[in-house]
Fold this protein.
Amino acid sequence: MSAAPVELPRWADTALVPLVSVVAALLVAGLVVIGIGENPLEATALLLRGALGSAEGIGFTLYYATNFIFTGLAVAVAFHAGLFNIGGEGQATVAGISAAIACAALGAVPGLIPGFLAAPLAILAAAAGGAFWAFIPGWLQAKRGSHVVITTIMLNFVAATLIVYLLREVIGKPGSMQPETPDFPAGAVLTPMHQFLAPVGIKLPPTPLNTAFLLALASLFAVWLLIWRTRLGYAIRTVGANPRAAAYAGISPAAVTMIAMAISGALAGGLAVNEALGVQHRLVLDFTAGYGFVGIAVALMGRGHPVGVGLAALLFGVLYQGGAELSFDKPTITRDMVVVIGGVLILFAGALDGLFRRLVAGALRLGESSS
Amino acid sequence: MDLLQLVALVLDSTIRLSIPLICAAMAGLWSEKAGVVDIGLEGKMLVAAFASAVASFVTGSAWVGLCAGILASLALALVHGFAAITWRGNQIVSGVAINMLAAGLTVVLGNAWYGQGGRTPSLEGAARFGDITLPFARWTREHVPGLGLLYDEVVSGHAVPAYLAFLSVLVTALVLGRTRFGLRIRAVGENPAAVDTAGISVARLRYAAVAICGLLCGIGGTYLATAQAAGFLPHMTAGRGFIALAAVIFANWRPWPALGACLLFGLLDAIAIRLQGVTLPGIGLVPVEAIQALPYLMTIVLLAGFIGKAAPPRASGLPYVKER
C-alpha cells in the first residue's frame, strides 16, 4: 500500500476534504438509522426542523454550539502546538469547581467587590481552574517527559472523582441529596440572551442561550488573533510544526508546551462558564456530558481554524438540538446518535484523513481529465 | 466474621474486578508491543459487552455470546488497524473515535432493539457464564485449614472467561518472550525498519497484534456482561480500559508485572467498595473517591519518572513508512 502525502489545492484541503468526511459520517449515521428501521430522510427533516425551524430551536442550537466552540477551540489551540489535549472534560470540571468556589466566596462576603465585577471574576475563576488542570500535563510533558495524552486521560478521571467528593463533602448544598452546589449569587451569573436583547427591542423566546455565546464568539476571534497575528502564536505554530527548529530559532518548546496547554485548558473552562454560570446557575455533577470529547471532532473537522471550528460547532449544535427534538418524535433514535456521528467524524476527519485526501485528489484529477 | 473469611472475600472480589482489567491490559500489551498505541481498549470492551449480551440473550448460550463479543471487538480492532497501519493515521485520534463510536452505537442500538434506555434484557441460566467449582474445592475447604478456604473462595468459583484471562497472561508472556513470532512482534514495535529489511511484513505483524488485541478485549467485555453482570448497561466499562492502559504503563510493558498491576488496581477497587460509607477511627468517613483516583494518580506519578522510568516500545505510536 503506497500512501505518499497527497498534494491538494488549498481550497480543497481546507474546505472540500472536511466536507467530504462530514458527508460520509452523516451517511454512516443514515445507515445506522436504516439499520434500526427508520427512514433517514424523514429523520433528517425532523432534525433540521427541530434545530432551525423556530426561534426557540435556533436559541437551543446556538446554546449547544457555544459549548462546542469552547471545547473545539481548546483542542485546536493544543493541536497548533503539536499537542493532543483529550482532557477537555476534566479541565471543564475543574473550571466548574473553581467557579463554584469563587461564587461561594462572593456569596459569603456580599460587599467584597463591586457588583458588576462579580460575573467577570467568576468567569476568570473558571478559566484559571481549567488552565491549571491543563498546565499540569503541560508541565509534566515539558519537564518530566510524560506524554500529554496519557496524563490528560488520567486527569479526566481524577477530576471526575474530585467533583464527586467535593460536591458531597465540601461545596455541596447542605441537606440536599442531589450532588449540586447551592445557587450562585445573582450578580455572578450570566444574563440569558432573551433578557440581554430585550432592552434594544429584540424579542426572543426564553432559551438557555446566554451571554456566554458572545464570549464564545469573542474567543473565536481571539484565538485567530493569537495563533496567526502574535509572536506567541508564531511560537506555538513553530513548535507544533517542528520543535527542534523552534528550539534552534530560540523558541523554548518547553515553555510553549506549558503555555499552550494552559490556554487550551482555559478555553475548555468556557464549557463551565456556559453550563454552570450561564444556564444551571449552580454546579451539578456530570455537567460536562461528553462535550469535551465532541470538541475533538469539532477541532478536527474545523481544521484547527476558528472559522472552521465555529462552523463545526454550529453543525454539532444543530445535531444536538435537532437530535433532542428527533428523539421526542422517534423514541428509537436517541441523542446518542450524535455521539456515533462524532465518533465516525473523528475517525474520518482525523485518523483516516489520508484516505479521504486521496479520494478527493482522485476525484479532482478525474474532473480535470474529463473537462 | 473472622479475619481469614474477610481476607478471602476481599481477594475474591479483587479477582472478579481484575478480570476485565487483565484482559484489556494483555490486549493493550500486544498492540503497544507491536508499536500501535491503543487507547480504544475501553470502546472495544464496550462493544464486546453489548454484542455478547445481545447474542447470549437471543440464543440463550453464553458461548455464542463470547463468540459475538470477540467478533464485535475484533471488528473495531481492524478499524483501528486500517486507520493506524494501512492509512498511517494518528493512532490516538483513531482510539478516541473508537471509544466514542462504541459508547454511542451500543446505546443507540440497545435502545432501538429493547427500548430500555440502552440496557439489554437480563440474562439467566445458560445465557450467563456460571461459576466453576474447581476439583477438590469442597474437600480442601473442610480438610486443609486456612489455605483450603482461600482455594475454595479465591482460586475456585470463577467463570470461564476469568480463567481464560489468567491463561492469556501465561500465553502472552510465553509467546511474546519465547517464540519467534513474539520476537518479531517486539521487534516491529522497537525498530520496524529492521524487521522490514529482514523481509518480514511490518503491516502483517502489526495487524496480527491488533487482532489479538481485539480478541482479548472481546473476552474482557464478555466477562463484564455475561459473568460479572447479567446483561449490558450503557457505559458499563466505566473507564476500565483506561485503568488497563495505566496498568500496562505501570508494568513497563511487561506481562507478569501487568498482571500484578491489574490485581493491585482490582484490590483498590474491592477495598473502595468495601469501605463505602464506613467510618474509620481517626479518619472519619472514608473518602472512597481518593482510593478510586489512586490508579490514575499512581500512573501520572510513575510516568513523570518520580518512581522508576517508563520505557515504552520505541516505535510505539509511529506509523511505519517504507523507504522507497
The longest strand of chain B covers residues 279-280. The mean pLDDT of chain B is 90. Chain B touches chain A through 53 residues (CB under 8 Å). Strands of chain B lie at 279-280, 284-285.
